[in-house]
Design a protein that fits this description.
Structural class: mainly alpha
Low-confidence stretches: none
Number of strands: 8
Strand order of the largest sheet: 1-4
Shape: flat
Strand content: 5-15%
């Protein structure tokens, strides 16, 4: 779907084909990693991708320039690198382009600003894949012997299980304590009323009784009444996780359903790339939002904000998830 849309934007001078994701991986049998040689991975073309690779290799040989346009995250960068390796591409005639939305302006801007393959991202993906294989290959057989066959151990889930176990043990050993709170329901002669809560510490029944006795003094008066306007800030733009949370909270959608719908919206050019941990927005997005709000509600409502990602490891090159057309 993406290839057809991109080819339509670029015109007849370009032929756009999909690799349908990763084309190479570690072999299914064996560990596929030479630990003695600096953990060098052994890659093989997947059986279901051999025809795809053959077709792409044939097209690459006749092309004046090869453009690698996979996603900008580490998996996408690795796909481009694997393609360059498997297709024996001449890197002097190969260009790497990225875009965060499938719109004509974004595609043409990407073509105008090509770059080289980012080996830091590629190596990050390779490290993840090697760790997955090393942990799974070494630990999964232990699970088969000790628990039951068919279970798998991974670099993330194994650590997560330990955290859950430690948390459960902490819950089981927790010694509970009791504290109290006191509310007062006040009514006025005209029938109006309000609820107030005591803002102190009440640790036992005796302190509750003492306070209650002290308050049994008859009438109360409101000493002062203050009214003020409070500002409410909007939530930050969507990241993958906050999109999933809101879709679950407001629409009752599962994570898989949310990501399936987001994938289709992205492929059809309606939203930016849906796998991101950044809340950054491009200047183009901010100006588009400002123009849309001004047109719909008036300029007094158009207040721009710039959000910054707090996570130190966030991939700042990505935008947050947003509509491609703000209207």
């Amino acid at each position: 779907a993406k290839a057809k849309t991109i080819e339509k934007y670029l015109g007849s001078a370009f032929t756009v084909r999909s690799s349908f994701g990763h084309i190479r991986d570690l072999p299914e049998r064996g560990i596929g990693i030479d630990v003695a040689k600096n953990f060098a991975p052994e890659y093989v073309v997947s059986d279901d991708k051999k025809d795809v690779v053959a077709q792409l290799r044939k097209l690459a040989k006749t092309a004046e320039t090869v453009w690698l346009a996979s996603d900008e995250d580490r998996e996408g960068e690795a796909i481009s690198w694997h393609l360059a390796e498997a297709l024996d591409l001449d890197m002097s005639k190969t260009k790497r382009i990225v875009f965060h939305e499938i719109t004509k302006s974004a595609i043409l801007k990407a073509v105008d600003n090509p770059r080289q393959i980012d080996m830091n991202l590629v190596n990050a993906q390779q490290a993840r894949r090697v760790l997955d294989r090393l942990v799974g290959f070494e630990l999964s057989p232990v699970l088969w012997k000790k628990v039951r066959r068919g279970l798998s151990a991974g670099r993330v889930q194994s650590v997560a299980v330990r955290m859950i176990v430690e948390r459960e043990r902490a819950i089981e050993s927790f010694v509970s304590t009791i504290d109290f709170r006191m509310e007062g329901r006040f009514t006025a002669p005209n029938g109006a009323g309000f609820l107030a809560e005591y803002q102190g510490s009440l640790e036992d029944q005796a302190s509750v009784n003492t306070l209650a006795a002290g308050l049994d003094l008859g009438d109360f008066i409101v000493a002062s009444l203050e009214q003020k306007t409070s500002a409410r800030k909007p939530a930050a733009p969507f990241t993958t996780s906050t999109l999933q949370q809101e879709a679950s909270r407001k629409l009752g959608l599962s994570v898989s359903r949310t990501m399936s719908l987001a994938q289709k919206l992205y492929e059809n050019g309606h939203i930016t790339y849906m796998r991101t941990d950044s809340v950054n927005l491009s200047e183009e997005a901010i100006s588009g939002a400002r123009a849309a709000v001004t047109e719909l509600y008036g300029s007094s409502f158009a207040q721009s904000r710039k959000y910054q990602t707090k996570s130190a490891g966030a991939q700042e090159a990505h935008e947050a998830i947003r509509p491609t057309n703000m209207l």
